[in-house]
Write a structure and sequence with these properties.
The protein is mainly beta and about 290 residues long. The protein has 2 helices and 26 strands.
C-alpha cells in the first residue's frame, strides 16, 4: 500500500465546563461531530491545583453501551462500583472500563490539596457488545511501556502498537473491539515524529501542552485543541516554538447509529429509554 500522510481535517477547541459534583474540566468532543469522530464519543481533560475545582469528584452514576478510559498524569482517584470492585488510580496509571450492559460506579479524588490532572475518553461499542457483561483493565504506571526519543522525548504506549525503526512496542490494553491506539507523547522544541497508523482508523490528536504542526507547516494545533486527521497511513507531527505534550488516539469506526443521552450510548432512542427505565427500576446491572 502506498503511504499517505494524514493532514489536519478539522480543529476542535476545548471549552470549559463542569461535570460530576462540580469538577471543572475542558471538553473537546461534541455530538455535532459524532459521525466524523466515530467511534469516539467524548474527551475531557481535568487539570487544576485548586481543590475546590475537583474535591466533589464524580459520585455514584451509571453507564451503559460504551467504554470509559481514565488516564492520570498527576494526583490520585479512587474508583468503586456496585459489584465491590475498587481501583486506585495514581499518576501514570490507566483504567479501561467496558461498561457494556451496565455499571454503577464512582470516581473520587483521594487528595485535598495539590494538582489533579488527567483525561477521560469515551469510546463507543458495537451493538453486538453493548449488552455483554462489564469488565475492567487496570494498569499501573510501571506497566505502561515508554519508548525513549531523542532530547528526552518519549512515547507512552497505552494501547495499540508504536512502530519505529527500533521495532514494535505494544501497550497493555488488549481485546478491545475498536482496536484502539492510545499514545501520550512528549516532543521537545523543533522535534518531529512519524507514526504509522491503520488506514481504516479515525485518528485524533489532542495537545495539552505547547503547540504542534500536523502533516506539515501551516497545519497547527495549540494547547487545548484537538485535531481530526484526514484518511491516510501515517502521521507526521512536529513541535514548533515549545516542548509539546499531546495524545494520539485512533480506533476503527463502528459505522452504526449513535444515540447518546447523559451516561448512556446506544443505537436507538428506544434503547436509551430502556436504559433509563432499567436504572430507575434497579435492573441496569442485572
Amino acid at each position: 500500500m502506498t503511504s499517505k500522510t494524514r493532514q489536519l481535517a478539522d480543529t476542535i477547541t476545548a471549552f470549559d465546563t463542569s461535570d460530576g459534583s462540580g469538577v471543572k474540566l475542558k471538553r473537546c468532543l461534541s455530538r455535532a461531530r459524532q459521525d466524523l469522530l466515530d467511534p469516539f464519543i467524548l474527551l475531557d481533560e481535568f487539570a487544576t491545583d485548586n481543590v475546590a475545582d475537583y474535591i466533589g469528584g464524580f459520585p455514584e452514576h451509571p453507564h451503559r453501551g460504551f467504554e470509559t478510559v481514565t488516564y492520570m498524569l498527576a494526583g490520585s482517584m479512587r474508583h468503586r462500583d456496585h459489584l465491590g470492585n475498587e481501583g486506585h488510580l495514581k499518576p501514570g496509571s490507566v483504567q479501561w472500563m467496558t461498561a457494556a450492559h451496565g455499571i454503577i460506579h464512582s470516581e473520587m479524588p483521594e487528595q485535598e490539596q495539590g494538582l489533579l490532572h488527567g483525561f477521560q475518553l469515551w469510546i463507543n461499542l458495537p451493538a453486538s457488545e453493548k449488552m455483554k457483561p462489564p469488565h475492567y483493565q487496570e494498569f499501573g504506571a510501571e506497566m505502561i511501556p515508554i519508548v525513549p526519543l531523542a532530547n528526552d522525548g518519549y512515547v507512552k504506549v497505552i494501547a495499540g502498537e508504536f512502530v519505529s525503526d527500533a521495532g514494535k512496542v505494544s501497550g497493555p490494553v488488549m481485546g478491545v473491539a475498536t482496536q484502539p491506539l492510545y499514545f501520550d507523547v512528549l516532543l521537545t522544541k523543533g522535534q518531529g515524529i512519524h507514526i504509522p497508523v491503520d488506514a481504516q482508523q479515525t485518528v485524533l490528536t489532542y495537545v495539552y501542552e505547547g503547540d504542534l504542526n500536523v502533516g506539515g507547516p501551516g497545519n497547527s494545533l495549540m494547547t487545548g485543541q484537538l485535531g481530526l486527521l484526514t484518511p491516510g497511513t501515517d502521521i507526521e507531527l512536529k513541535t514548533r516554538d515549545y516542548d509539546s505534550r499531546f495524545l494520539v488516539l485512533a480506533a476503527r469506526p463502528i459505522r452504526e447509529p449513535v444515540v447518546q443521552s447523559g451516561p448512556f450510548v446506544m443505537n436507538t432512542h428506544e434503547e436509551i429509554e430502556q436504559a433509563f427505565r432499567d436504572y430507575r427500576n434497579g435492573t441496569l446491572t442485572l
